[in-house]
Amino acid sequence: MPVIVLAGDEDFELKRRLKKLKDSLVDPAWASFNLSTIDRPNLVDVCDNALTVPFGQGNKVIVFENCDLFTKKKSGGAAKASAKPSASKTTKQLEYLDEVLGSVAENTYLIFSCPFNFDSTLKTSKIVSKHAEKEDFPKAKFYVGSHNPQLETWVRKEAHRYKATIDDDAITYLLDGTEANLRQIANELEKAATYILPQKHITLEVVEEMSPYHSHVFTMLDFWLKGQSHRVLDSVEELLSRQPAIQIMATLQTFLSRWIEMKSICEEANHKLPHGPGIQKRELPLPEQVKRVCSHMKMRPFVVEKDLKRLKNWRLERLVAKKEMLTRFETNVKTGLMHDRNALELFLID
């Protein structure tokens, strides 16, 4: 089908698919004539270019880059509203779009590259769906420390692209350390696969050595939970050289939410144990706590066990209070009342 829509907020996989399509459809000898890109197209751009035909041999490929015709747009205020075309004009444009997309030459390919999720309720979406082959690239939902078979399989396949295999704990390290940033994981795997040559198996030790930045997140958390403020700030300095403080605060929110849920599950189970006069307060053994948390949160046992050991001296109430403090600081940062770095450091040493 000569009309193709690539849509979704997983930009890395979408761009990879776009490159593959261009490589397969365009004759390199005629690329300067037969490959064109139009950024942020409107309906007029699409209609004006859709009926062009190839020059010389091969296919004509027109890429409509960063296309937002098939997703709801945010209001742009009064200035933009005044420039909005009339309803009758828009209707005519949509009718013409329908006609044009149905008349695309057999060897002309229109590729809509849309780094947004496809909204099938829009009029433009309904029209293009009649004529196009649509491929979706949604970003997979990921929570640090959680078990996500879809993303874990993706990492294994990505390692295989470099003719390598990879340990499960190395996969967890990469997913947690990057918060499932596929582009970053692909780069790390390429580095690791090259580093181990002529070997073909990527271990946790290899990715830790090749991607020390990720380990700084976990190192910072360990120091913080142990109350080692000076060492926490040293780790933060390293992290701040690579990402803004507000992003580190978002990572802390993720971990605090996870830890609060874990402690809640364990404390609820402990509360149900026999108690009363003459009965010493009891606590579930660590293996049983791990089992219960894994069952509720669908996490890997070794990740849960490591976190529960970290949290041994932290009460649930204290974790909740820290999360409330962090939320207040984030609000202050976003409203301009605090500098993000000051807010992060104050939170960690308080």
Task: Provide a concise account of the structure shown.
This protein has 350 residues and is α/β, with parallel strands linked by helices.
Describe the structure.
The protein is 59% helix and 9% strand. The protein contains 17 helices and 7 strands. Helix 3 links the parallel strand 2 (35-39) and strand 3. Helix 3 (43-49) runs parallel beside helix 5, helix 8 (168-178) runs parallel beside helix 10 and helix 14 crosses helix 15. 25% of the residues are buried.
Strand order of the largest sheet: 2-3-4-1-5
Question: Order of SSEs, N→C?
Answer: EHHEHEHHEHEHEHHEHHHHHHHH
What spatial form do the alpha-carbon principal axes imply?
A: elongated
Kindly state the percentage of residues in helix: 55-70%
What structural category do the secondary elements indicate? alpha/beta
Taken as a percent bin, the fraction of beta residues is 5-15%
Radius of gyration: 26 Å
Kindly state the number of beta strands: 7
Q: End-to-end span in angstroms?
A: 61 Å
For the residues shown, what is the average pLDDT?
88
Task: Record keyword descriptors for this entry.
single chain, 350 residues, alpha/beta, five-stranded parallel β-sheet, two-stranded parallel sheet, 17 helices, elongated
Topology:
Layout: E1 3-7, H1 11-25, H2 31-34, E2 35-39, H3 43-49, E3 60-65, H4 78-83, H5 87-101, E4 108-114, H6 123-131, E5 133-136, H7 149-161, E6 165-166, H8 168-178, H9 182-195, E7 201-202, H10 204-210, H11 212-225, H12 229-240, H13 245-271, H14 286-297, H15 301-310, H16 316-334, H17 340-349
Parallel strand pairs: 1-4, 1-5, 2-3, 3-4, 6-7
